[in-house]
Specification:
Layout: E1 6-7, E2 34-35, E3 44-49, E4 58-62, E5 67-70, H1 78-83, E6 84-88, E7 98-107, E8 121-125, E9 150-156, E10 172-180, H2 182-188, E11 201-204, E12 220-223, E13 226-230, E14 233-234, E15 243-246, H3 248-259
Antiparallel strand pairs: 1-14, 2-10, 3-4, 3-6, 4-5, 5-8, 6-7, 7-8, 9-10, 9-12, 10-11, 11-15, 12-13, 14-15
GO cellular component, one term: extracellular region
Subcellular location: Secreted, Extracellular space
GO molecular function, one term: serine-type endopeptidase activity
């Protein structure tokens, strides 16, 4: 793994087992973004270890009253899968929100942590998520999304990078990004990482100083009221290279096959 490549989560909810390099041991949020207001992103989820109820680990999104989506690398530890809290209905990590535990978690069966392939996962909560104006699901995108689409990511952290190790943020931030073709995504990536961009990925690029960063893993990329991606990996924090997400339309059939078990 190239020393500059990072997964965009702080602790990957694996109870201290970082899977990124030394540069990733910081929790930072959307670079170049704006602070969100209550109810602006009612589908947002903060995934947190149960022993630190107010310490954000990864992002996620509400799919339905019992299912939450994120990325697989946030839930690689079998114990973490059952001891992680999903917090919804708040834009601050220090106060508010409703806490849910998972009954089960499924990472994609062909997830490859080393090749960063099929980095997608979904979890079923133990109890039904109660919807309110501040807590709502977001539909999964089923259509292929091409280049030039304005999309939004939201996540927790700080606005800049680098930051002192262990500095945590409280407020949800968001930013608008632009989707690009996979060909452009590959060309914007360093040569040794280009083979890790697959047809099942979607990418964004808006130049240096704007984008996702550590702590944003699993946070949804949305457009036109649908989730179209989830933050997976990039070169360090908005440094002028493409950012990579699993393409939700590619994984929707797998996700829906799991959800259909409840029906």
């Amino acid at each position: 793994m190239h020393s500059g490549i990072i997964f965009l989560s702080l602790i990957t909810l694996s109870f201290g087992a970082s899977i990124a390099n030394n540069n990733s041991e910081r929790n930072v949020r959307i670079v170049g973004g704006e602070k969100a207001i209550e109810g602006q992103f009612p589908y947002m989820v903060s995934l947190r270890p149960s022993y630190t109820r107010h310490e954000h680990g990864c992002g996620g999104f509400i799919i339905s009253s019992r299912w939450i989506g994120s990325v697989a690398h946030c839930m690689i530890n079998p114990i973490a899968k059952l001891l992680t809290l999903a917090v919804v209905g708040t834009v601050r990590t220090s106060v508010g929100g409703t806490f849910y535990r998972f009954a089960m978690w499924f990472n994609h069966p062909e997830y490859n942590i080393f090749e960063r392939k099929n980095d997608i996962g979904v979890g079923r909560t133990r109890s039904t998520i109660t919807f309110t104006p501040l807590i709502q699901p977001i539909p999964l995108g089923s259509d292929f999304v091409g280049a030039g689409v304005k999309a939004v990511i939201s996540g927790w952290g700080t606005l800049d990078e680098p930051l002192p190790i262990g500095q945590f943020a409280e407020d949800l931030h968001w930013v608008t990004l632009t989707t690009i073709t996979n060909e452009d995504c590959i060309n914007l990536m360093i040569p040794e990482e280009r083979h890790r961009i697959y047809d099942e990925n979607i990418c964004t690029y808006d130049g240096p100083g704007i984008g996702a960063c550590n702590g944003d893993s699993g946070s949804p990329l949305t457009a036109n009221g649908f989730v179209i991606g989830a933050v997976s990996w990039a070169l360090p924090c908005a440094r002028g290279t493409s950012e990579v997400y699993p393409r939700i339309s590619s994984y929707r059939p797998w996700i829906m096959s799991l959800i259909s078990r409840d029906e």
